[in-house]
């Protein structure tokens, strides 16, 4: 055989192996990332355990409802006080092997058992599908949707900022609602991009949307983040100007059912009193 065909065969084999590895990563059980965060205003006592989930993108082949049900069992085993879901419940990519209705997509969430409840916001894909339909499906399974609104969960005042990527966010209203209900403020957003404009009174914001890039190449980093800030808020725990942002890599996938260098994850945040303010 001539060298060129051998080289091409090698490239094809390497490409198939990489695609297989990336699919296996996409369907793996999510990594549980942990952080302990001191929040001003929390009273001393037993810390709160908060789970952050995001970007479920329920669709075949990588995220059927059965896989989401297994992830829900994983979340329940962590015994959280509160579950926050940062949007994009719907998987609507063209290359999906199967699409599910909104009701089918969120049905496994009915089994979540956090002590203080499950709160959520919508993402861009939920708006592109049918926001009213997704909202109704969430209500049916006991997930409280915060549409530029806030709710009290124990000592926390959780503000839910609707999706800024599709222009449905109303930050002034959401912040006013947080202040009105009282409690230790925390902001839940689909996208991390509102973070620079969040006031200092809100010490913690959690988000998703970026998938931590979903495809991260060596030396280059994320191919795309869908964030106006590029890599700045693309992934993980960010401390900036005395505030904290936590961005999940999410659970499902978009465009292609592949993940490379950005494994699916959940965040387990332990919220405790600020030891300097007791």
UniProtKB/TrEMBL annotation:
Pfam families: Metallophos (PF00149)
Coiled coil: none
Domain Calcineurin-like phosphoesterase intervals: 49-212
Molecular-function annotations in GO: metal ion binding; UDP-2,3-diacylglucosamine hydrolase activity
Lineage top rank: taxon: Bacteria
Keyword Lipoprotein: no
Assigned keywords, A-Z: Hydrolase, Metal-binding
Any GO BP annotation: lipid A biosynthetic process
GO cellular component: membrane
PANTHER family: PHOSPHODIESTERASE YAEI, TRANSMEMBRANE PROTEIN WITH METALLOPHOSPHOESTERASE DOMAIN-RELATED
Name listed for the protein in its UniProt record: Phosphohydrolase
